[in-house]
Amino acid sequence: MVEVSLGEVYRMKLTTTEGIIPKCKNDTSRNKYFIILGKDEYGDIIGFSVINTKLNINENTQYPLSKDKYKFLNGVSRYVDCSRIKRITSKRFSELFTLDSKKGQISDEDFRFIVDTVKTSKQTTIKEIKQFNL
Fold first, then answer.
1. Fewer Cβ atoms within 10 A, N terminus or C terminus of the chain?
2. Half-sphere exposure of residue 105, counting CA atoms within 13 Å on the CB side?
């Protein structure tokens, strides 16, 4: 199993199993940046937040990441979707992992704000907060 730490950023080809909607009609997956928020007590399930290129004007729970602060964003400022916690099993994460998957680390200050926003989202349950030790 691949070890992950809180606040690490990865980019992997995720599917609907992880809650990601493919971009084009015939696609089955989509490359997405995401931030590790936590793991369950057994380390079997990883909770994460997706990083999007465009601001979703229908959500007020998005946190901006500056292209100047985070060089791994390749010159494009992006937004963390803090509205919900997505999940991936440790087994699936390990299957998708390559040496190029890990892209960087979110600063402690930004990470704390992201977690606090996720915790206060209407779509986040108390069970999820407890499950991922948020």
1. N
2. 6
